[in-house]
What we know:
The protein has helices at residues 2-25, 27-33, 38-64, 71-91, 95-125, 132-156, 159-179, 195-201, 203-224, 226-232, 237-256, 258-264, 267-284, 290-299, 305-319, 325-353, 356-377.
Amino acid sequence: MKRFLTIKYAVLQASYWMSACFFYSFTETFLTAKGLQAGDVGIVMSVSSIAAFLLQPVIASILDKGGRINFKNSICTLIAIAMLSGVGLVLASTTALIYTLLITLMTLSLVVQPLINSIGFAYVDQGEKLNYAASRGIGSGCYAIIALVFGRLAKVDVDYILYGYILLSALSIVSCYKIAPKSIEGKRNANAGGVVQFLKKHPHFLIMLIGMMLVFLQHNLINAYMLSIVEKVGGDAGDVGTAVFLAAAVEVPVMMLYTRIQKRVPCDLLIKVAAAFFTIKSALLLLPLGIAGVYISQALQFAGYGILIPATGYYVNEMADATDKVKGQALLTNAMVMAGVSGYLAGGLFIDLWSVDTTLILGTAVSLVGSLLFIFSTKRILPKTVDS
């Protein structure tokens, strides 16, 4: 039963993250092939992030309260609308329509992300034998593979990666329907409070979220403008796929082993180490190492993103009350989403006005401030027994 449930959840994580690879790592490639500029990429991605930022806490609060809202159907519906937007992009020919459909696709996909995480922790809290970190690691592994595939397909025809997104979104709907519960925590969540009440109970968490926003500002900037970064050192769209593959691939063993690591190293210490590596990873891009420097930087993803994502997920699940778990997961994603707003806008603007090098220097400085906030705000949380 343990392996069966973990595998089913891993399929959901894998299908979601493979579909997300389209907009997380290839939006610039897709839009530039359609004749748009770096600034247009920033607008599309930042507007999507702002919309998701506004929607996520509202939807999370509604779902935390339970009632007659069907949790499973809600997620499947959001994914379906995003997928239909992708279908529309196949036929879209005007810039305005491309903008509208891609923003809708990205917004709803970002809103779904914390809800998928909540599914896994709902089973963990019910005592089911589900290994969240391993499932998330499989998701990263599949992201790595599809990034490599998308990179090669984009060199042939950029529309091929859009077709891939549509097929993978359909798989997400099917897998979500198979594993997602109809509700999370049921009637026990009827008195769930809002975001403000949650942050008042955990004031240190607000500082953590600010640190996360600053760290992920540079992280998202690098991901969104990877094509510009590799072209600066003589690479192309194929190298984007290779770079993204490398970063996602190195996450897998860390995430697969995370629950064992957490038994030996406190969760708060893992978060602090991971926060520091985000800045180290960014700083490496400033060195004159060519495409090899990009690959070396991406290879450090295991110590940054690979640890931080499962660690913060478990951290919030241990910290939050039953009535706040979905909300807590949504706030984590919201911090990353708002980081995207700044990163996407600043990246597009600074690259167009100045240069890739200047943009990376400024982003690395912001990441350093975020790492320090993360390190000094994260406190010790006594963990529950996690599954190995």
